[in-house]
């Protein structure tokens, strides 16, 4: 297997790549939407909102948590999840910056 040479990229690039990679599955987008709609952390109700098994939802939650998009706190026998707003602000700043640069540039390419 070849090397990815990730050590040659800036930490900000690696962090952003991890965030966007975690968004690369429609189930994870759906989970984020469920969490965003909720006014508080959700404990176990996510499975009821999606057409997926508990184990599949758990795997997607793990990926989102590892990427830093969500936080999870243990309460008794369950884990309660909520959005990590810091990660969403990173994404918002990055894509907002791209949008502003393109608007300013008025790109006429292609």
- Biggest sheet strand line-up: 1-3-2
> Structural class, from helix and strand content?
alpha+beta
Number of helices: 5
Average pLDDT works out at: 87
Q: Your description of this structure?
A:
With 110 residues, the protein is α+β, with helices and mostly antiparallel strands. The protein has helices at residues 11-22, 26-37, 46-49, 54-67, 85-105; strands at 42-43, 70-75, 78-83. It has a three-stranded antiparallel beta sheet with strand order 1-3-2. The longest helix has 21 residues, at 85-105. The mean pLDDT is 87.
List keywords for this structure.
single chain, about 110 residues, 3 strands, three-stranded antiparallel β-sheet, alpha+beta, 5 helices, elongated
Q: What's the short story on this structure?
A:
By secondary structure, the chain is of the alpha+beta class.
Per-chain topology:
Layout lengths: L10 H12 L3 H12 L4 E2 L2 H4 L4 H14 L2 E6 L2 E6 L1 H21 L5
Antiparallel strand pairs: 1-3, 2-3
């Amino acid at each position: 297997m070849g090397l990815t040479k990730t050590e040659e990229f800036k930490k900000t690039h690696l962090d952003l790549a991890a965030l966007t990679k975690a968004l690369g599955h429609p189930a994870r987008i759906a989970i984020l939407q469920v969490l965003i709609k909720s006014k508080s952390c959700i404990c176990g109700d996510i499975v009821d909102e999606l057409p997926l098994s508990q184990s599949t939802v758990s795997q997607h939650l793990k990926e989102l948590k590892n990427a830093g998009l969500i936080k999870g706190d243990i309460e008794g026998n369950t884990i309660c999840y909520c959005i990590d707003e810091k990660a969403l602000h990173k994404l918002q700043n990055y894509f907002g910056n791209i949008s502003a640069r393109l608007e300013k540039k008025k790109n006429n390419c292609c």
